[in-house]
Recover the amino acids of this structure.
């Protein structure tokens, strides 16, 4: 990813304190059927070809759902190649009707390869404001995103954030001893 004007450097995503917070979220989210259902819902409400949940740690951990058949795929990729990294760095909803014309997105591999022609991404936040990743919807062809598409995708992203928090708390509880160790 080239340095985009107006975006913080990618190293802000690699901040050790942020990575420590995200570790519980990433481990807690694996194999969640609730998250898979919410990802699929995001794609359906926006009328998108694909929807994806990307958790950003030292790499992007992505779960994608294809709208046509609800098939799920998971992959790991470099942060520098991710449109969701740009969404998190922007700190706001990122809407691109034509990604090839967007100055922050046009050089990214999914855009150059023709996989993402239109993109709508929403940062996913922890209670303290730390962004753990993004929920996005996209398709291979450019298209306009309506106010309804943006609003409903943001609504689903809010529920995804709540589920990620719940899973992270559960993950931390599983790692904690059931009974505190007595101190002398």
């Amino acid at each position: 990813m080239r340095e985009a004007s107006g975006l913080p450097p990618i190293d802000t995503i690699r901040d050790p304190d942020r990575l420590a917070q995200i570790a519980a979220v990433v481990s807690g989210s694996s194999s969640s059927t609730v998250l898979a259902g919410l990802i699929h819902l995001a794609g359906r409400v926006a009328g998108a070809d694909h929807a994806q949940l990307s958790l950003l740690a030292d790499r992007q951990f992505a779960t994608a759902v294809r709208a046509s058949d609800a098939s799920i795929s998971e992959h790991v990729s470099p942060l520098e190649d991710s449109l969701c990294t740009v969404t998190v760095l922007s700190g706001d909803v990122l809407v691109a009707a034509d990604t090839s014309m967007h100055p922050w997105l046009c050089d990214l591999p999914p855009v150059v390869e023709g996989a993402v022609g239109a993109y709508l991404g929403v940062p996913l936040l922890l209670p303290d404001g730390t962004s753990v990743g993004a929920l996005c919807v996209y398709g291979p062809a450019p298209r306009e995103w309506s106010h309804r598409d943006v609003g409903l995708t943001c609504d689903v992203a809010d529920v995804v954030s709540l589920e990620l928090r719940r899973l992270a708390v559960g993950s931390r509880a599983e790692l904690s001893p059931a009974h505190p160790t007595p101190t002398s």
Notes: The two ends are 53 Å apart (CA to CA). The first strand starts at residue 50 and ends at 56. The longest helix spans residues 147-175. Strands lie at 50-56, 60-66, 72-77, 94-96, 118-125, 131-139.
